[in-house]
Amino acid sequence: MTIRVLVATAVRPYRDGLQRVLQGAEGIALAGIASTAEQTIEQACKLLPSVILLDVDMARSLALQKQLGSGAGQ
After folding, report:
1. Which helix (H) or strand (E) element contains residue 58?
2. Is the pTM of this model over 0.85?
3. pLDDT-based confidence at 66, cuts 50/70/90?
4. Distance between CA atoms of residues 29 and 2, nearest Å
5. Residue 29 in contact with residue 61, Cβ under 8 Å?
6. Strand order of the sheet with strand 28-34?
7. Is the confidence at residue 26, as pLDDT, over 80?
8. Domain extents for the chain?
9. Does 36 have pLDDT greater than 80?
10. Domain 3-69 class in CATH
């Protein structure tokens, strides 16, 4: 089983580092990368990742939490 991961952070060094680490990890596929709350919602709906690695600053967005928690509009 492959775990599909969406990385969501506005901090570019975090995105780049996580991308490098995840691309080399066995059993993990990098489903996508998002740098804004809007991109996170869009990609979550489109790519249907198994896991979303969500930056704490983005996670504080109540609107983002509600949309992701409700199935991101599905």
Report:
1. helix 56-59
2. no
3. confident
4. 6
5. no
6. 28-34, 3-8, 51-54
7. yes
8. 3-69
9. yes
10. alpha beta
b (16+ CB within 10 A) / e for 7-37:
bbbeeeeebeebeeebeeeeebebbbbbbeb
Residue 50 phi, psi dihedral angles, 5° rounding: -75, -35
Query: 3-class DSSP state for residue 23?
Result: helix
> At 26, phi and psi to the nearest 5?
-70, 135
Are 69 and 43 in contact, with CB atoms under 8 Å apart?
no
- Please provide the size of the chain in residues: 74
Which residue is it, tokens 């901090």? 11
Task: Residue 49: count other Cβ atoms within 10 Å of its Cβ.
Answer: 19
Alpha carbons 11 and 8: distance in angstroms, whole number = 9
The pLDDT score that the predictor gives to residue 24 is 86
